[in-house]
Write a structure and sequence with these properties.
Organism: Candidatus Enterococcus testudinis
Family: Belongs to the UPF0298 family.
Number of helices: 2
Shape: extended
Strand order of the largest sheet: 2-3-1-4
GO cellular component, one term: cytoplasm
Protein name: UPF0298 protein A5886_001372
Subcellular location: Cytoplasm
């Protein structure tokens, strides 16, 4: 009666920003992946593609006549493990930036005493 179901597996995806001349052909882009956001004012589309089909679909999207430019998301390429850097000297830039800070003692006057 109960069927064995596969456990849910997260698919690896990668973001793609597609700058377009016109948003009329938005349905054509929906065939390639999940459209996350559409900016009607600046005419760009943020979409997600599956990682294994990413390069082939990106090449097809770039060939459309209504596409101005295609930018990949670099987030998967950036190392996001900051735990080992917190509290170390690598987390803070060097303090010798060439600016001298001089504190001045300023007197605060209230408007009624002026």
């Amino acid at each position: 009666m109960h069927e064995e179901k596969e456990p849910f597996q997260i698919q690896k995806r990668r973001g793609l920003i597609v700058w377009v001349y016109s948003l009329r052909q938005l349905k054509n882009l929906r065939r390639f992946g999940f459209v996350h956001y559409v900016s009607r004012k600046m005419k760009y589309v943020v979409m997600y593609l599956n990682e294994e089909e990413y390069e082939a679909k990106k090449a097809k999207i770039e060939q459309f006549h209504f596409v101005r430019q295609v930018e990949p998301s670099y987030r998967p390429d950036v190392a996001m493990d900051f735990a080992d850097k917190i509290g170390t000297d690598e987390a803070y830039p060097s303090k010798g930036d060439g600016f001298d800070v001089e504190e001045k003692n300023t007197m605060i006057r209230l408007a009624e005493n002026v």
